[in-house]
Structures are given as C-alpha cells and as structure tokens.
UniProtKB/TrEMBL annotation:
Keywords: Signal. It comes from Candidatus Chryseopegocella kryptomonas. Residues 1-19 form the signal peptide. Residues 577-930 form the Gingipain domain. GO terms for molecular function: cysteine-type peptidase activity. InterPro entries: Caspase-like_dom_sf, Gingipain, Gingipain_N_sf. It holds the Pfam family Peptidase_C25. The lineage of its organism: Bacteria, Pseudomonadati, Candidatus Kryptoniota, Candidatus Chryseopegocella. This is Peptidase family C25. One of its GO terms (biological process) is proteolysis.
C-alpha cells in the first residue's frame, strides 16, 4: 500500500490565489463563442521512495479539479438549454519536456485500505461538456477544459481554446442563491388549503391472504360507527381500485348490528412485478391496506352467482385434482450485495434470504403441503431462487446446488458470481412424482455441491415454489382452487370436501359470491366426518380462481383505523418547511393542539421566523400517494408532487423519525423508511439524499432535507429541545471556534493542514487535534472532550472510523458522548469516515445518531457516511462543502446540498462520485443556521507589510456600534500568540501592537449580545498586497461619474512605479452579464502613501456590471490585485422566470410548465410575464418559436407591459399552424426602441415540451396528410384536438383484435381525439392497408380504448374501396382494426342472490344481478347494454355498472327497478368489445309488496334418510329464521337458525343450497334425521316450529314430520 503525503501534492497543485478573468463569453444570439485562457503552469517536482516525479501546478483553485494522475483541469458549472451543443473551433498549444514522469494517484477505501484506480481518462480530449441534471429547475452542465496532455515525459500545454456554443442561453452559474428564495409554481394562489370540517377515512390492515369478514361490531370497536348507513353505499378500495365486496345488511338495506362485510384480500407482495424475477415480497412492508368508504352511490359488489345446476351437460370434477402453487419464503438474512447493481436503487433485486450455504453444506426446510393427489402421475414442479454471495472469477462454475424433495433429487443448477439464479424443473429437473409428496409436512433439501478446495463458495436460498396436483380437499377449513389443467373452459360440477364446519362460503375471486351451494355431511375413510360443498359454475378461463372458506376460517384484519383525512394533493398548499413524522411520535388527532409537543414547538418556532410549516404524518403520505401502503417511494412521490404542484414548493424537509433496514421485522423502528442505494464496493447503504432528487433523473438536490433518527417521543424531545435552545441562545464568544481533527495517518494531517491554511476563513479561532503524537496539536479523547465543552461551531474529522467510533486510537466512542458537558454549545460535525452516519441499524450504533439524540449534549447536526469512507473522495467532499459553510445566512441544508452539487460537478468522473452524493446523510434539522460571525468587519492596518521591529497600527470598522471585541494575534499557522479585549464605540476602534511573530493574522471578533461580526488583517514581511477597493460616489446611479480607489503595498518599496485600474464592462444579452462591452485601463495617482485613485472617471451606465482589478508595476514586475464587481441598476426587468430564481448569476434557461397551448377560436401560447424591477416594463415583445430560435421558426409575437414588481399573463396567438406532434416551444422577451433596454436578458427565455394536437376547421374538411382527413359534422365546430400518431402507445389485450396500418406507414394507426367540449361528431377517412389475406373487410371497425375495461371496444365504421370511414364521437385513443371473434356473450340473471325461476316472486324494488361473460371482454358503454322491463327500454343511467372492472371478461351489472304489484317480464341483451350481441335472456316474475310467508311443508313426509322443509318469503326480507324439531313430549332435539355463529345451526340451510335464508324467495331447510348431538332419531312422529322474525316481531308456523326407516 502506498504511504505518502498524497494530499501535500494535491495542495501544491491547487495553490490558492484570487480569481482571474480567464473565461470570456461572446454572444452572437443563438450561437456563442467561449474563450478560455489557461494560466501559465508551474512545473515542480517531488521525491518519493528515492524517485522523482513531476507536478503540474496551477495557482487558481476556484475552477480547478484533479485527474487521477494529478493533472489539473478547469471545470466550470454552467447553466444552459438541455439541448446545448459545444464544438471546438481552435486551440493554441506548446510542448515542453517534463524532467520526470507524472505521479499517479490511487484511491483507497476505508477501513480496509483496498486500492482502486478510477476509470475516467482525458486521453485525447481537450474539452468535454457533460450534462449533470436539474437543480431546482435549472439545467446544469460541467464544462471541462483539459489544458495538459502527457505522452511519456512530453507535456502538451493548451494555452487557449475557443469553443462554439449552439444554445439559446449559456453562462457560468453562481449556485449560492439557488435556495435563498422559495420556488413559486402558481402566482394566483397564495393560501394554504384549510379543511372546513373534519373528514375521516377508514383503513383496514391485513397481513394474510384470504376472505375477511368485518362486522358492524368490529368497526364500532375501532371507533367507526356506521349505524344507519345505507349498506349499498359501502365500498372498499385497494391500490386505488374498488374491489367487489359482499355486504350483508339483514334485509333492511341499512348497516346495523349483526351486519357484516366480506371480501378477498391479500398481504402486500411484489409478486415479481417490474421484471424483478427474484422479488416476491415487498421489501418495505408485508401489510396491505384496504380503504372502507361510504360513497355517494352504490358500491361495487360481489355478484350473487347461483351455484345451482344451470345446464344439463357438465364436467364432473369428483375425484379430480388441480394445480396448486405454494410459495415458500422466510426473510432472515440481509445482504448488501456489493458486487452488483452499482449506482442503482437496491430494490432492483431481493436482498433478503432464507439461509446461506457454504461449500459442502446442506440445509433442510420443513414445508407444509396440503392434500396432494397420490394417484396423479404428474411430476412435482419446483422453482427455486438462489443468489451468489461470494464471487470467485477463477471458478467456473462457482456455485453448484442440488435440490431434493423428500430425499429425491429434483433439480441441479450451477452459476457464477454474485448473481441471481432462478432454477426450475422445467429447465434442469429430475422427475419426482406427485405421489412423493405427503399430506402435511415435507422436506426440501438444498446442498452446496461446490468442493471449496480453491475457495469457500457461498450462496443464498431466497425462496422456492412447489406446484403439484392437489385434491379438491379443504385444509384448515379453506381451499383456493382452479379447474384442472386438462381443461381451459367449460361448465363444471365442483365437489369440495374436508370441511369441519358446514357454514361454507364460496367465492369466485374478484367476481361473485356463489349461493345455492349444496352442503352434504359425509364420512370419509382418511379424514373422517366432514362436509362436502357442491356447486356448478361456468368457467371461461383456466386462470379463474375460486376460494371456499368455512365461517371459522374467515379472517379478521390486523387492525382497523379511523383516520383523519388530509389533502396533500391540493395545489393551493404552500409551505416552506415540511415535518414528516410518524403517528407513534405525533398523533395528528391527539397531539395537534398540544402546544407542549416537541413538533408543535418546532413548528411554532419556525413560524415565528417567517417560515410556513406543516407537520405531516407519513401515514397520510402513504394514503394519498401509495394507497395507504408503506413505501419510501410514496414519500418521494409526495415531495415530487409538492415541488411541482403546490403554490409554493417546499424548501426544507425534516424526516422526524428513524429508519432501519429491517423495517418488516421492526416496524416500530422503521418510522420514516429510507431508500437504499447500491454504493461503490459496499452495496446497499441508506441514502436519504435520494428523496431530494426530484427535478430530473440526476444527483442534484432540489429540496433541503435532514433526518432526526429518533425512535420514541423522549428522543424526539431531546433533539427538538436542543434545536430550539441552539437557535434561541444569544451570540457567544465560542461562535468563532472551529475544531479540525486529523486521524492516524499523515494523509489526514496534511488534509487538515490544508483546510486550516487555505480554506477556513482567517477570522475564525481555529483549533486542531491530531491523534498522532509529536505535534503541538496532538491529543486524545480527553482533549477532544475539553474542546467540545469549550464550544465549537464546527468539528471536522478526517480519519479512520466505524459506525460507533472514530477509530484512530479510540478517539471517540458512543460511550464517550455522555461525558460531554456542552449544553447549548452544540457543534455541527462533518464526520468524514466510514459508517458513522449509518442510522439504519436496529441496534442504533451509529455515532452520528447518538451525537444528535443525546440530551443536552452532543451535536446539533452531523454529516456522515452510511457506507465506506474514501481517503480522497471524503476529502473532496469537504473541499466542496466548506466554501458554503461559513456564511451565517445559509442553513445547514443549503450548505450540504450546494456542496454536494459542487463536489459532483468537480468529480463526477470518479467511480465513487455518485456513491458519495448518496451515502453522506445529514442527521439533523436542515433549517438550522450556524452562528458563525459575519465576516464583514473591516480590519485595516496602516501597512500590510512590516519589518520585525515595526508596530502594527490597526483600524477597525464594524456595523456593530458598541461592544467588546476580542483581538487575537496568531502566527501564519493560526496558532494563538496574543489575545486581549478592546472596546468598540460608534462602530470603530484602533490600537497598535508589536506582534510576537514575524507573520500572521490580526483577528477581530465582535459580540454585542445580539449579533457577531469578525474580520482579520494579514501582516507579513515579504510579498505584496493590492486590494481594499472602493468607488466614489459610494452608491452610484446611472449617469454618475465613477472614480476608483485601491491600496498597493510592495515589500522593500515605498510605493510602486505605477498603478492602473482595469475595468471590464459587461452587459446582459442572453445570459446574465454575459456580453463583454469593453475594457478601460485607467492610470492612477497617489492619494496617500499606499492609496491610489483613478485619474480618469468613467460614466455609470444602467444595467452594466463593472469588474474591477488593480495592477501595480515595480522594478519590471507586474503585481496583480483582487477582483471586485459593481452593478448599476435603473432599468425594467421583464422576466419569464419567477422572482425567486432571479438572483442566480447566470443564464437561467428553464423548462417552464406555465408555458402552454390554450385554445378558443384560435390556438394561443400562454405564459406568465414578471417584472423584477421597480421600473415599469412597457411595450416589450414576446416572441414564440418552434424548436429553434430563428426567424424561420417564429410562430407568433405580441407586445406586452408589466408594472413594476408585478406579474401578468400574456397570450400570443399562433400565426402558423404546426404539425401534429411533440414540439419544443420557446418563449423569448425582446426589446427595441419602443420598449427601451432590459436590465437582465438571462431571465428572458423559457421553453416547454408541448404536444400540438390542434386541428382548425377553416372549411368543413381538413387534410391531416395524404392518407388521413377529417370532416366536421357540426358547422360550428372550429377546433378539435387530434394527435397522429398518438404519443401514448397502448398494448392490445384482446386475443383476436388485429390493428391495421395506414398505407405507407410502418406503425399501426393510433390517434388521439379531443372534442374540447364541442357537440357533435367528426368523421374520419383513412386510407388503410388491407393487404392481409385473412382480412374480412366487413369486420374492419374503429375501436376506442376504454379506461374502465383497460382494453379497446368497437365503435363504428366501414370500408369503401381503399378507404375506411368512421366517426369520432367521444374523446380518447382510437385504432382501426378487425376481429374474427363471432362468439356471443353469455348472460345469467339472478334476483336477490338466487337463481331465477320463471314466475318467482320478487320485491317491489328487486335487485337484478346480470352476469355477462365473454372471452374477449364485455362492452359496458351506453349503447351496449339493452335491458327491458315490460317491453320498455331501461335507461342506461339506471343500470349500475362498476366504477372499477377487475376482469372485463366476466362482470356483473345491476338493475334495481321500482315495480308495481303484479306480473312482469324482463329481457337482457349485451354486446362484447368486438360488437357481437348476446342472445336475449327473458324472465317473467311477479311482484308482491305485502309481506307474506308461504309454508310448503316438508318433503318427503314420511321420510327415511333426509327431508327438507320448504318455505317462501314474499314482499320483504326478514331478519331471522329458525326451524325447531321436537319430540311428541316437547323435548327439543334439533334446531336450525340463520343467522347464527354456530355451524350446526347453519347446516340445514346450507345443505339445501337455496340462497340466503332470510331473503325474498324460495328456500329449503334439510334435516338428515339426527339430533343436536349427531345421533340418529328413532322412527316416529315429530313436531316442528318454523319462526321468522321481522321488524322485531316473530311469526310461528307448526307442523308434523314422520320418520319411517
């Protein structure tokens, strides 16, 4: 391993000096020229291990980065248009010989020291232009200039390059101002949404698959009282889609005591969605959420399908079996998988595994498999997911796995590396008969067959699935089943057996609850006494699934919650600061009004500082953005929505709650889940930064985010108390202190030295602590604690570390934190090492977490890594962040986000760059500001250059008028030598002192108890100083004459031979001050011994930026001074960019969503225009361009005016028709003599990607192209929307639908039509390709995509010759196609949940359930359902069509007519999606409104084995029915009752299979001649009493039953 002061080299390469004018931009409009002049390099040398190396040194560090071979290059952060192009025009170069070869650097990982060589190279490149992404709406690029090329020891130096830029806008960006003002999305709304009344939603949480039964009492116990609610209005949704449910309402239609809801639900799974072949479980949760709602109309219901025999012919499934697939998985081991998916989010594959096997190791899994068919000759199918853990390239194959089922080998598979392997018996299996399986526990064994001689290979078992032939036998009183694989469709008789409870319910999943099921008691040899359920069903597809459950097998939810609804999707929301937390920490119903709650205190505090704050429960985010299901994606989607759609985008986001990688096992610790990122060489690492990348797919943060990783309310209070007390403290003298810590290693000391000497503000009191002994800065834990207790605003650590420790000599461990005594003196800590920011461990070991949550001590915030540290890139990150660190106006969130952007811009080519941006997490509040002093105190010495005997005469000037100042004299290494206090009066003070060192700093810190200021002056005995510029008049205005002043000191010279000011004048053209007007060189004269003034005055011109630099000449040498700028205002500033972005010193070229097409009688472009000046903007020109900004592409222009500091909406009519399709539309503000000049042209351009789909009818017909034309039917139709080819492409789900192409086109005809509210129709004529031989022209039709059906349905049309004619009469996506499907849909009608019998009685308001089935799909549009009652058409509005259709091939619609008493008849026909009509299904019935119970007695009577009692309910349903059987002596021997929770009492009704016993209609109660104990009764006469309860009253009917055997 290399042991070298590599950072010393880095510092030599990046010697600091002041910025120079080496980047020049000349604007020619759409094209621009850039000239970059490289400064003269210094070629130095360094010796290492007896060898010498050459170093190339540049003085200017502002835009300098390093290649891995230490070659410096220029890097400029640029804003431009997203499609900007840069080309090389010319370059000048020299060649020199290097005395020695270049030294190359190797990056090293912490803590293992592994070396990595970065992959980026600049070989052959002179420049590069790289798109970085969007930051707060701004397109950012890195413009790289490589001035040095090396070939052996020959150095090629590019002195100057010229680049041609093709872009509407292009300029350097100053990122300091990006977050200083809010991002406004909407100007006309400036209020936050307020709910006028409390609204609640009801959530049902489930963790298992099955049928759930929720009673009225269950809901009431959860605080949900639905008493009196119309049962028809109840609905349940999952994933935003309403699911069909069964609601029992006791016959009165009102939900009350004893009523219930049933539905099929599943736990949360991924089920291999998104192409993730190994990911079955959801990585974030296994809890699924269903929402119970009370809708305005009827909810979606499971149809009540009859199970009675409907057809004479059927397929009998007695003795048959079906394919059952069982998924086995147990997530016990988390692997970070460091070798795969670099720079991707970790959920592209599974990271959780059941077990891991080393070489020659075997693991057995006990798995439960119910009811295998022992007679089946089929083989068992197995699919198993493996994952390599080790990666040994020298082995091929590396991993070998053998799999056994009950000791029979079923599969062998092999693969290499850390990769997924999904092995299946379909590909590499051995035959294992179904009879091998046992009913119950079976053994699956996995053996790692790798020998392990070369290396110990390890792989993981993720899951396996077993598919086998299963009998139709219930297990634990339930069974989920399909038809046997021998069939694809048909009419079947199902007989299910093995139930212990006769109260059996059967459901066609997602479609219906099956009534009229016959339940038979049986006694089988293997399973003993059990119940069989027999029913008949028509099945159209082998994919149709049923589930049968007895009453005791129905599930209850994990929990039911009544939740106060929020409205996060209301665009009028407008908040600066969002606090996202968890109900365990903040109950929005109980805690909202508790002013002592920590989060309310934090909210009130920030509101007092002018921020608008909202506390949001993460559950509400899940509800609105992920249908209630926990996921970090929901949090990001919410932030994305708020960023783009709220009136004002949030700036700050605080995640108040912890996160762990094992959130499913520890849900109460995983309060606000994080996202994990596949980091370089470490794998999955927690990465909160992912939430901030909103505007574009990039690595630039768009919001400022921090996390308080607290796990309970006590920890939350600790942290919030620290935040508020930190903010509330008055300025203290420790506010000037910083501590820089170097771990064990000269590398870290050299890093720290450089930070101290070249980066930190000189006015700070800089402390150092080095772990290695032998230095004046050396020390350990006790010294660190003392420093912390003294108070430090910033602590930076570079060194070795782990999650719970700064590891160098055990400098700081978690157990040391309680030893601190630094209440209210909390530092911000940058912990540049490994894992100290890994907040995701359940054990809470991360040092950064404990530093924050410790009560009354520790840190105010910590920036730390959750992954590996990198010896160079950690340091590059610090160098990028520190330029923003010491601005007291900036929040910590701004500092980190801007610093990361700067880091990524400079080092994006390093392989660790993306990892660094993701893995450095901020643990703390992003809105906290560090109490650094404002560095604007002026500290002037009579001379900067002194001799050893001179006395320094210091003048101090401060905005603080009266205070005590601390004066510190340090040496050039910032080691304190002298210190005293001084009184400031009227903002001034002076003193004289003879320093005890020859060179160093005079530092002033002023604190008046309200604010702090600081400044410094340098003193030295050699060199030069040029600076301290000022201008007269002090605040110039346009028209003033400007005189410039500056100080010049040169060692060993009384005064320079001469001095000049160079004044560069810039004007905004297309970028902000991007155009160089010219330069003035002004000779100077001496005002005093060291102060010079320009001898010539120049005029101050409005809208001009003056860049000032002074040059001095002495004894043939030129001395360069600092730069300073001056901007003159006084012009209007019309802008297409909101005010909050105007402070960016760049050309801001935004994609503006406010730029859009609008249409009335003409098509216009609409955009908001702002005036950012206090001068009115009158008569400016707004021009609209298509795709390019050129005269040929001008499509509209209009003049507009905007008052000072206001906004106006401008609409520009289009002067040209555009081609239908996607266009990039530009809006540009221009000026002329009528409008006058513009202060800033950088905000005058915006664009948006817009689809032009407008067709204007100047006559009755419009030609779209030679093969497509449109004709209006209504002469008043002027504009429609028509897009061809449509940008939205949809897949075809119909098996038989074949789309057609337009003649000459390679793609199918797909068009989007929008009527824009116009009445009438538009005719379309299309020349279609009719060349297919199988095509039947008569079947060619126009189809429209039906969002409800999620498929296309037929509309109209016909072919005439080569042309197709059709009508567009509703908005949507259209295709032209044909289908050879001629099969008619099938219709089955049930009334009140029972199969319909002609002449049956129904209530006066009956519910007809119409089952419509078709292989291709059922059309439910208004013209496709023809229902009639008594010969009159039923209005479509009276037919209840489900809002959500889960299966368009099999669906139910309902009809509830109001009928008079008497005889009626009804007919039903329906059409499928291809236009085929069903046969008419007709029924006759009679209505009786008066309540009546008809008793038909029992049959047979007498009976031998069994008998049934028949009755019919007319008029209205009843609440309860009961059938009791007595002996002649009056002893009760049997009773049947419905509803009842006892299986025995239900059985008699179930056996008959005649529907819900309390419903209107015919019913049977069967008795098998046994008593309540199951014993056969003797021959004889028995009495029965049949009772019905209605409206609280009971009616009784009696009779006799005789038994003769």
């Amino acid at each position: 391993m290399i042991k070298l002061k590599i950072f010393l080299l880095f510092f030599l390469v990046l010697s600091i000096s002041h910025a120079q004018d080496y980047f020049n931009l000349v604007d020619h409009g759409f094209t621009k020229e850039i000239e970059i002049v490289a400064e003269e390099p210094k070629i130095s040398e360094i010796e290492f291990n007896g060898r010498k190396y050459s170093l190339i040194i540049l003085n200017n560090a502002e835009n300098i980065s390093l290649l891995p071979n230490f070659l410096p290059f220029y890097n400029f952060l640029i804003s431009s248009t997203a499609d900007a192009k840069v080309d090389l025009i010319q370059y000048d170069f020299d060649e020199v010989d290097l005395p020695y070869p270049l030294f190359e650097i190797k990056e090293r990982a912490l803590p293992d020291g592994v070396e990595f060589v970065p992959e980026f190279t600049s070989d052959g490149k002179i420049f590069d232009f790289v798109y970085l992404g969007k930051m707060r709406g701004i397109d950012l690029f890195s413009l790289l200039f490589f001035p040095f090329q090396v070939d052996g020891q020959k150095l090629r130096i590019v002195k100057k390059i010229k680049l041609n830029v093709v872009a509407n806008s292009f300029a350097k960006i100053n990122s300091h101002e990006i977050f200083t003002s809010p991002k406004i999305n909407k100007i006309n709304l400036n209020f936050n949404f307020q709910q006028t009344q409390q609204e609640f939603e009801y959530k049902i949480f489930v963790r298992k698959d099955g049928v759930y039964k929720i009673t009225y009492e269950d809901l009431k116990n959860a605080g949900i009282d639905l008493k009196g609610v119309q049962a028809s209005r109840l609905r349940i949704k999952n994933n935003g889609v309403e699911i069909p449910v069964y609601v029992y309402a006791g016959g009165d239609g009102v939900f009350n005591e004893g009523d219930y809801i049933e539905f099929y639900a599943e736990r949360r799974k991924n089920k291999f969605a998104g192409g993730k072949v190994d990911l079955y479980n959801d990585l974030f949760t296994d809890v699924n959420v269903y929402f119970l709602e009370v809708g305005d109309g009827a909810g979606l219901r499971l149809a009540e399908e009859t199970g009675a025999r409907f057809f004479e012919n059927y397929i009998d499934l007695r003795g048959a079996s079906f394919y059952s697939e069982i998924h086995f998985e147990n997530d016990l081991i988390f692997e970070r998988l460091k070798d795969v998916d670099l720079n991707l989010i970790y959920d592209v594959r599974d990271h959780w595994f059941w077990t891991e096997l080393s070489s020659n190791q075997q693991t057995d899994f006990d798995v439960y498999i119910p009811a295998p068919d022992q007679l089946s000759l089929d083989n068992v199918k197995l699919k198993i997911a493996f994952h390599g853990i080790t990666s040994t390239p020298s082995l091929n194959p590396e991993h070998i796995a053998n799999v056994f089922v009950n000791n029979q080998r079923i599969l062998t598979t092999q693969w290499n590396g850390q990769n997924i392997n999904i092995a299946s018996t379909d590909d590499s299996g051995y035959p294992v008969l179904n009879s091998t399986l046992k009913d119950g526990l079976n053994k699956v064994s996995v053996f790692n067959a790798s020998e392990g001689k070369v290396a110990n290979t390890i792989f993981a078992v993720n899951w396996f699935e077993i598919t086998y032939r299963r009998l139709y036998q219930a297990d634990k009183d339930q069974i989920k089943f399909k038809i046997p694989p021998e069939y694809t469709s048909g009419y079947f008789r199902f007989e299910l057996f093995g139930f212990k409870n006769p109260n059996i319910s059967i459901y066609r999943i997602g479609t219906s609850k099956i009534s009229n099921v016959e339940v038979v008691k049986s006694k089988d040899e293997k399973i003993g006494e059990n119940y069989h359920a027999i029913f008949y069903a028509n099945v159209l597809s082998p994919d149709v699934e049923f589930i049968a459950v007895s009453e005791n097998a129905k599930l209850k939810p994990d929990s039911i919650a009544k939740d106060l609804k929020t409205n996060l999707k209301n665009p009028s929301n407008s908040f600066d600061y969002l606090i996202i937390t968890h109900p365990l920490l903040y109950d929005k119903q109980k805690d909202a009004n508790d002013q002592n709650h920590p989060l309310n205190q934090l909210k009130n505090f920030y509101e007092s500082k002018g921020l608008s704050v909202k506390i949001i429960s993460v559950d509400d985010i899940y509800d609105e953005f992920n249908f209630g299901v926990k996921s970090p994606y929901a949090v990001k989607e919410f932030l994305r929505y708020a960023y783009f759609n709220w009136t004002k985008s949030p700036t700050y986001v605080l995640l108040a709650g912890g996160a762990v990688y094992d959130g499913r096992r520890y849900p109460n610790l995983d309060l606000i889940p994080t996202m994990f990122y596949q980091s370089y060489w470490y794998g999955a690492t927690s990465a909160d930064a992912w939430f901030t990348f909103i505007d574009g797919e990039d690595y630039l943060g768009d919001v400022l985010l921090g996390r308080l990783p607290v796990r309970d309310r006590e920890e939350l209070k600790n942290v919030v108390d620290k935040i508020i007390s930190f903010w509330n403290q008055k300025p203290q003298n420790w506010n000037r202190n910083v501590l820089m810590i170097a771990g064990e290693g000269k590398d870290f000391e050299t890093q720290t030295d450089y930070l101290v000497l070249n980066v930190l503000p000189k006015y700070l009191n800089i402390n150092r602590l080095y772990v290695i002994a032998g230095s004046i800065f050396s020390g350990g834990t006790s010294k660190l604690i003392n420093f912390v207790n003294d108070g430090q605003v910033l602590i930076n650590f570079v060194g070795h570390g782990g999650g719970a420790i700064w590891a160098d000599n055990g400098l700081l461990k978690n157990e040391d934190i309680p030893k601190f005594s630094n209440k209210d003196k909390y530092p911000f800590i940058t912990s540049m090492t490994c894992f100290s920011g890994a907040f995701d461990y359940p054990q809470k070991t991360a040092l950064g977490v404990n530093l924050l949550i410790e009560k009354d001590k520790g840190a105010i915030g910590v920036l730390a890594s959750s992954g590996l540290g990198w010896i160079l890139n950690d340091y590059f990150m610090v160098l990028s962040i520190f330029p923003y660190m010491f601005d007291p106006t900036k929040t910590i969130g701004e500092i980190i986000t801007l610093g990361k952007a700067r880091y990524y811009s400079n080092y994006f080519f390093w392989p660790q760059a993306k990892t660094m941006v993701f893995q450095y997490n901020y643990i703390g509040d992003p809105a906290v500001k560090l109490p650094f002093p404002d560095g604007k105190t002026i500290v002037q010495s009579e001379r900067k250059l002194i001799s050893s005997s001179d006395t320094l005469k210091i003048q101090i000037q401060s905005s603080i008028q009266s205070a005590n100042a601390i004066v510190s004299i340090t040496d050039s290494a910032h080691v304190l030598k002298q210190e005293f206090t001084l009184n400031i009066q009227s903002g001034r003070a002076s003193f004289s002192i003879r320093p005890s060192v020859s060179s160093g700093f005079v530092k002033i810190f002023i604190n008046d108890g309200q604010k702090t200021e600081a400044g410094y002056s340098v003193f030295k005995t050699a060199g030069s100083y040029i600076g301290d510029y000022f201008v007269q008049p002090e605040n110039p205005k346009s028209g003033d004459s400007l005189t410039f002043y500056g100080r010049v000191e040169i060692a060993n010279a009384i005064r320079p031979d001469s001095a000049v000011f160079v004044i560069s004048r810039y004007k905004s053209k297309f970028g902000r001050f991007d155009f160089l007007l010219g330069r003035d060189t002004l000779q100077c004269f001496s005002v005093s011994s060291n102060v010079f003034a320009s001898s010539r005055k120049i005029p101050a011109v409005a809208g001009v930026r003056y860049v000032i630099q002074m040059l001095a000449y002495f004894s043939g040498k030129v001395y360069l001074g600092d730069f300073k700028e001056l901007i003159i205002g006084g012009l209007p500033d019309p802008s297409l960019i909101p005010p909050e972005l105007n402070k960016l010193q760049s050309s801001i070229y935004l994609k503006n969503q406010d730029l859009k097409f609008v249409a009335d009688s003409v098509v216009k472009v609409s955009i908001r225009a702002y005036n950012l000046s206090d001068v009115d903007a009158n008569n400016f020109i707004l021009k609209i361009y298509d795709n390019l900004r050129s005269d040929d592409n001008l499509i509209g222009e209009s003049r507009f005016s905007v008052s000072a500091n206001s906004v106006s909406n401008v609409e520009v009519p289009l002067q040209k028709n555009l081609n239908i399709g996607l266009h990039r539309i530009y809006a540009v503000i221009e000026s002329d003599a009528s409008s006058g000049d513009d202060f800033d042209y950088s905000n005058n351009l915006v664009y948006n990607e817009l689809v032009y789909n407008f067709v204007k009818f100047n006559s009755d017909s419009v030609l779209i192209n030679e093969n497509i034309s449109l004709k209006r039917v209504n002469p008043l139709t002027s504009i429609i929307g028509f897009e061809y080819p449509a940008s939205l492409q949809l897949s075809l789900s119909q098996n038989s639908l074949s789309p057609l192409k337009v003649v000459g086109d390679s793609k199918f005809f797909v068009a989007k039509y929008d009527a824009f509210g116009n009445a009438g129709e538009v005719e379309i004529y299309v020349k279609v390709d009719l060349s297919e031989q199988s095509l039947n022209k008569d079947r060619v039709k126009l189809y429209i995509y039906d969002d409800k059906l999620r498929t296309f349905r037929v509309k109209n049309g016909s072919v005439n010759g080569e042309w197709f004619y059709g009508k567009l009469d509703e908005s949507g996506i259209y295709i032209i196609g044909y289908s050879n499907d001629s099969r008619s849909p099938r219709i089955e009608v049930a009334v009140e949940g029972q199969s319909f019998r002609d002449g049956a009685s129904v209530p006066s308001n009956p519910t007809f359930s119409v089952l419509i089935e078709d292989d291709e799909g059922v059309d439910v549009s208004s013209n496709s359902l023809k229902f009639k009652i008594d010969g009159k058409d039923v209005a479509y509005s009276e037919i209840v069509v489900p809002d959500t259709i889960s299966n368009p091939r099999s669906l139910f619609v309902k009809l509830t007519p109001k009928l008079s008493d008497g005889e009626h008849w009804a007919s039903f026909t329906a059409r499928d999606v291809n236009g085929n009509w069903s046969n008419e299904v007709g029924v006759s019935f009679r209505v009786q409104s008066n309540f009546e119970v008809k008793i038909y007695g029992n049959f047979p009577n007498p009976f031998s084995d069994k008998t049934f009692f028949a009755y019919e309910i007319l008029g209205s349903p009843v609440e309860e029915v009961e059938f009791r059987i007595y002996t002649v002596s009056g002893r009760l021997i049997q009773n049947f009752k419905f509803p009842s929770s006892e299986a025995r009492e239900i059985y008699g009704f179930q056996f008959g299979g005649t529907g819900v016993p309390t419903a209107i209609g015919y019913h049977e109660i069967w008795w098998d001649g046994t008593d309540r104990d199951g014993n056969e009764v003797a021959n004889g006469v028995y009495f029965y009493k049949f009772s019905v309860k209605r409206e609280g009253k009971t009616q009784n009917y009696t009779g006799k039953i005789a038994r003769i055997r």
